[in-house]
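Researcher: Re-running this chain for the archive, since the previous output was lost when a drive failed. Same request as before.
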Amino acid sequence: MVTIESRQATADRIFKQCKDLLVSKGKAYNPGTTDANRNFKKIGEMLGIDPRVVWCVYFLKQVDAFVSIMLGGSDGGEPLESRAVDICNYAVIGVDVDSEPKTFVPDETVKCLPDRDWGTHESDSEMRLVSVKGLSGFEAT
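Model: Regenerated structure tokens:
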């Protein structure tokens, strides 16, 4: 049985890992700059998409892996607790990415994906692209 005290110990352990990893990876992903969100902006510029969409992809990758492990899938070499740490950190990063000025303007000359309807999903919990050209956001289906 998980007690309140053991859950608090788990939270303390995970949150310590979160902070340690956030500091070390933040420096590794953004060398030579103090802009903690530079990697999201850089990839967004390279692909012609909003840095928030780049963040969403990174975050959802971790959530998808976490759910897969919870439902009995392989951990792919990264255990559940490690994925939990990544999800916590991407949530923190998401708050910071969202605090940036919303200045993204889609570049219609950049074509990373074909123009097509992405369709709908059977599950209410899945997401679909609202605007393929600008990748302007997501909506629940």
